[in-house]
Amino acid sequence: PNITHQIMESSSLRRENCRAKGGSPGFKVAILGAAGGIGQPLSLLMKMNPLVSVLHLYDVVNTPGVTSDISHMDTSAVVRGFLGQPQLEDALTGMDLVIIPAGVPRKPGMTRDDLFNINAGIVKTLSQGIAKCCPKAIVNVISNPVNSTVPIAAEIFKKAGTYDPSRLLGVTMLDVVRANTFVAEVLGLDPKEVNVPVVGGHAGVTILPLLSQIKPPINFTPKETEYLTSRIQNGGTEVVEAKAGTGSATLSMAYAAVKFADACLRGLRGDAGVIECAFISSQVTELPFFASRVRLGRNGIEEIYPLGPLNEYERAGLEMAKKELAGSIEKGVSFARK
Ligand code: NAD
Ligand code: LMR
Question: pLDDT over 90 for what percent of the chain?
Fold first, then answer.
């Protein structure tokens, strides 16, 4: 095993040095919660991403097995595993992007907020590690309740003096992925041709699809609008119920997380016109955090777009969303300040 380890380490170093000299694009990415239901397919898909040169897989259980397995894939990213809190700092040092799918998922009958008591503490600890070891990294928070865990991370970074609001993003991509899929189904289109902005937050009525701004432009009937809005808002619950106690969305989430992480990396590389929805620090409404369309660039979020014209149905939805969001944001902030 020692010889195998030595060969693996020297080959990773050779590959890293080679990349550094050639100046070819390649970013260092850590996944925290890498052995979980989302973490495993997410790790697999990130290992396939040509923009990733180094992939660190961290979890409190099972990372040696997941790392060994994924490291056999013949794609160029160098994979390293880290197990348990004592290895968190090594997992984070030098990272450009940190993706956080760590935490417990819902069971039928639960709301995302029911996960707060366990997941708030997990996100707090991981954020403290990020503030210490890679304060300039872009951070993608997947752990629920996103409407509270993003404010928690922000407060922890503020306390550490490292907070940069343009580098902290709550992942709401799955809502957009679902919206595109469900709308395409109704219209008989290829989902690739559809783009629905989804704003607000990531729980129940805070998930606000702006069907009036869909591309290509389409006029839905009130019945279609009602059906689609409700299906998009309840997409997570639909999966939780179908999984019947074994967890929540993992595979579609890993797909959405990689779609979003890839957009962040293309932004970091300097690509133009990278625009996605995310839950971020915002002045688009009176709330301190809100999901909306953002342009991603070398410094993370480079532009936050206003909501644009809303119809009457969406204006009513916005009021409901803001009411619930205000409480969830406040809950996260006061937890982190305690
Ligand atoms: P899971 O239980 O299958 O996996 C979670 C992983 O986190 C486990 O491997 C666990 O060991 C690990 N973990 C626990 N504590 C940790 C810590 N302190 N440090 C590092 N890792 C730790 O759950 P899952 O299905 O992968 O879901 C993970 C989270 O993602 C849940 O909170 C879920 O609600 C959320 N989620 C969010 C979205 C979204 O759209 N943002 C979508 C789906 C799921
Ligand atoms: C989702 O939208 O699928 C996730 O937030 C998981 C959940 O609890 O619904």
Answer: 92
CA 224–ligand 2 middle distance (angstroms) = 23
Annotated binding site: 33-39, 59, 106, 112, 119, 142-144, 178, 253
Bond from prior residue into 101 cis (ω within 30 degrees of 0): no
Number of helices (H) and strands (E), helices first, in the chain? 11, 11
* Token reading at 167: 């580098």
How far is the C-alpha of 30 from the C-alpha of 176, rounded, in Å? 24
C-beta of residue 293 within 8 angstroms of C-beta of residue 197:
yes
Interface predicted TM-score (ipTM) over 0.95: yes
Ligand 1 atom 21 nearest Cα = 33
pLDDT 10s digits, 290-333? 999 999 999 999 999 999 999 999 999 999 999 999 999 999 99
Contact predicate 275/297, CB 8 Å: no
Q: 201: buried, middle or exposed (CB in 10 Å: 19+, 13-18, 0-12)?
A: buried
Ligand 2: centre distance to CA 144 (Å): 8
136 to 32, 114, 133, 300, 314: CA distances (angstroms): 17, 31, 9, 10, 36
Rounded to an integer, the average pLDDT of 177-183 is: 98
Do residues 59 and 99 make contact, with C-beta atoms less than 8 angstroms apart?
no
Read off the pTM: 0.96
